[in-house]
């Protein structure tokens, strides 16, 4: 009878072996040691190849575009392989030079001999790549202190090391947390980690390839609109901005997985998520203000995708809560189509309407 009374709990309720507080504290200490060692090794690797990591971070800057007020021609002047600058011509200069009908033109300055005299002349360069350079942002990243290069290298190594050591960091954290969860909770958390890792990469790539060039261009446009020069940026501030922006967007894309996992476990419900909508608007605006530049356009570029993902999460939770799944599915797709249409209108207004407004302000 004693054996029957001391029967172990079902496997589904078994969260792993029971340990004392000191044993948990010892496990936590080893997790911290493993995290620190993996991050240090990853930082060392990135520090050795800091120039390659820096080239990756600078890529969005080379893809950001510049808009010029009015419709006058923009000339890129070169002397050999050196670029002397990009200049927008006046109407009188366009008529006098007659450089063709293309708005972006490349001109090469070269020495010429006239009898016994040498003079400088110019010719139109047919290379379209040189002319297209005028449409790219020309920003120099600079260090303003003797030790600035060292601190920039450490900063690059830290952010690169976080990315490189992320799989090991997640593995060590999971190995510490999982024994405390029940079997059905481990199943949901494992699925959430797998899907969340993919969404994190999607968020980082979406920010890196799509949002970052637009945000950098908006930053320079805003400075020009205020009458301030924006030809040089501090390297450490640029690195911090780019990495925080990508990290914040990646974590924001994981929000649906975290919330839906809590819904499945029973911690949250559709009613709770619907009531928290107003608070999530404030939180997403706060994240946009903290993780991006202070200007409004960049903050909205981060706020809109994060709020869209939260609304999608609320709809999925509502769909799970409905007894008639077929009717709920049609309403879900209708709401998603309306939300995508609103986002499309916002994007069209930014892509086409904002340049026209800016041209009017700068002209």
List keywords for this structure.
flat, alpha/beta, two-stranded parallel ribbon, 11% strand, single chain, 6 strands, four-stranded mixed beta sheet
Q: Could you explain how this protein is built, in words?
A:
It contains 13 helices and 6 strands. With 363 residues, it is an alpha/beta fold. Among the domains are: 61 residues, no CATH class; 182 residues, no CATH class. It has a 4-stranded mixed β-sheet with strand order 2-1-3-4. Strands 5-6 form a two-stranded parallel ribbon. Helix 3 crosses helix 6, helix 7 runs antiparallel to helix 12 and helix 8 packs parallel to helix 12. The longest helix has 43 residues. The radius of gyration is 28 Å and the shape is flat. 19% of the residues are buried. The N terminus is likely disordered.
- Bin the strand percentage: 5-15%
Give the helices and strands as they follow along the chain: HHHEEHEEHEHHEHHHHHH
Broad structural category:
alpha/beta
Mean pLDDT: 80
| Oligomer status | single chain
| Spatial order of strands in the largest sheet | 2-1-3-4
Helix content: 55-70%
Low-confidence stretches: 1-12
Q: First CA to last CA: what distance?
A: 93 Å
The overall strand count is 6
Give the overall shape. Answer: flat
Calculate Rg over CA atoms: 28 Å
Major β-sheet annotation:
4 strands, mixed
Number of helices: 13
